[in-house]
UniProtKB/TrEMBL annotation:
This is DUF6371 domain-containing protein. InterPro entries: DUF6371, Zinc_ribbon_put. Residues 120-294 form the DUF6371 domain. NCBIfam families: PG0870_Nterm (NF040506). The lineage of its organism: Bacteria, Pseudomonadati, Bacteroidota, Cytophagia, Cytophagales. It comes from the Bacteria. Residues 7-63 form the Zinc beta-ribbon finger putative domain.
């Protein structure tokens, strides 16, 4: 298929700055990305072609759709299409409601956060736990950034099935990987978690800065589009076959930490106990799925996800629920609401001296 007159085209070579790191083989300066000829902006980083055709062969086109899914181009056209208004409608015809604009965060904003890992508490936890090589791979694979909202805070960027950054969760951890809590004005304690758009808005107010256009659109109260509708880590799914198993947990931290321990799974996070539903799992419908609910004193989390799994299986999913935390977590851990990552971190024997050799 020729794309010479198409809206999306592979970016023409104009020096090393127009070639990127391949998302599959991770070789630098070998990846050609697609560009939007209307806006002159690069498409999300998973769309492109690796120059190492024999050794890698990665190719992902915005014109190719996945199973039962729209292609990037089709979705772009669907969002941009406006109702025709130059003809007088019949009295009985109801006006079509214009599609609300999508909320997504510019790629340059995301990339600016992928640094200062030496001051990122969670990044340092990964480094100390797994070593530099594995930690670097995890930070890249899961789109982890650094935030100044709290000193040492982490950003977990959340992308949709087309690779666009739809939101970012800001979390401050302690050295053991637990979310830090702080005193609230009402005398209670609250978890140090926030969203990038609210943190960015607070930064602008504090420093008397004007808000960028993307943030104004993102904060528009009339914009009803869900801002983080996808599973965390979803970009990994485009690189695996339909029969490859995926594992789903609640928190972003857990998906990342479990990846090196149980690499047979592609690890994803749903974002919360109540977010497990057919709409959020649609992009992994073809895969065998294993759920790992958090521990709870009365087993309510396990029961809730087991009931939801039975409901989703009736709708064509293939889901099983693991009871590892129900069996292995002690009473104190259940009271604390341990997840699988907490259990793994607590059982860690320490930094192996062989890593320094």
């Amino acid at each position: 298929m020729r794309f010479s007159s198409a809206r999306f085209q592979l970016q023409r070579y104009a020096g090393a700055r127009t070639r990127f790191t391949c998302p599959k083989c991770h070789t630098s300066k070998t990846f050609t990305r697609w560009i939007d000829t209307v806006t002159n902006e690069l498409l999300p980083e998973q769309f492109g072609s690796c120059d190492r055709a024999d050794k890698c062969g990665y190719f992902n086109s915005p014109y190719i759709s996945g199973l039962n899914e729209l292609s990037y181009y089709q979705e772009t056209q669907q969002v941009e299409k406006q109702p025709i208004s130059n003809l007088r409608p019949l009295k009985s015809a109801k006006p079509k409601r214009a599609l609300p604009p999508l909320c997504f965060i510019p790629e340059e904003v995301v990339e600016q956060t992928k640094r200062r890992y030496s001051s990122n508490v969670f990044a340092q936890l990964l480094l100390n736990h797994f070593g530099a090589g594995v930690a670097t791979d995890l930070l890249c694979r899961f789109d982890v950034g650094t935030s100044a909202h709290w000193p040492g805070a982490t950003i977990f960027w959340q992308r949709d099935k087309l690779g666009r950054a739809r939101g970012g969760q800001v979390v401050l951890f302690d050295a053991q990987g637990h979310t830090v809590k702080e005193d609230a004005p009402n005398g209670r304690t609250k978890r140090c978690t926030d969203w990038v758009h609210t943190a960015y808005a607070a930064h602008c107010r504090k420093h008397n800065l004007s808000q960028p256009s993307w943030l104004i659109s993102y904060l528009d109260p009339n914009n009803e589009v869900q801002k983080s509708p996808s599973l965390y880590g979803l970009a990994q799914v485009s690189n695996i076959s339909a029969d490859s198993p995926v594992a789903i947990v609640e928190s972003t931290k857990t998906a990342i930490i479990c990846t090196p321990y149980l690499p047979a799974f592609t690890w994803l996070a749903v974002g919360g106990l109540t977010y497990l539903n057919a709409d959020r799992l649609r992009s992994v419908r073809e895969h065998p799925i294993t759920l790992y609910p958090d521990a709870s004193t009365d087993g309510s989390a396990y029961r809730r996800w087991s009931e939801k799994a039975a409901e989703l299986n009736q709708a064509g999913f293939r889901i099983q629920v693991a009871d590892v935390l129900e069996r292995q977590a002690n009473n104190a851990q259940k009271v604390a609401g341990f997840d699988l990552a907490d259990l793994l971190l607590e059982q860690w024997p320490g930094y192996p001296p062989s890593w320094d050799q």
